[in-house]
Amino acid sequence: MFQVELVCSDPRCDAELTLWVDELGEVDAIACECGHGLVTVRIEGFEPVLAAV
Ligand SMILES: [Zn+2]
User: Fold this and answer.
1) Per-position DSSP letters for 3-25, written without gaps between them
2) How many A from CA of 47 to the centre of ligand 1?
3) Tens digits of per-residue pLDDT, 14-46?
């Protein structure tokens, strides 16, 4: 699980969003509402705390 912070690649657009994804590839499929792409500014990975039985 990754927490990904994104900003719009258009400097005139101040969109920011934080997503939770299982695979970083999911981020590639997402675009800003204004039609520009999104730039990843930060990625944090989280390991599951509880081991599945
Ligand atoms: Zn935008």
Assistant:
1) EEEEEESSTT---EEEEEESSTH
2) 31
3) 999 999 999 999 998 999 999 999 999 999 997
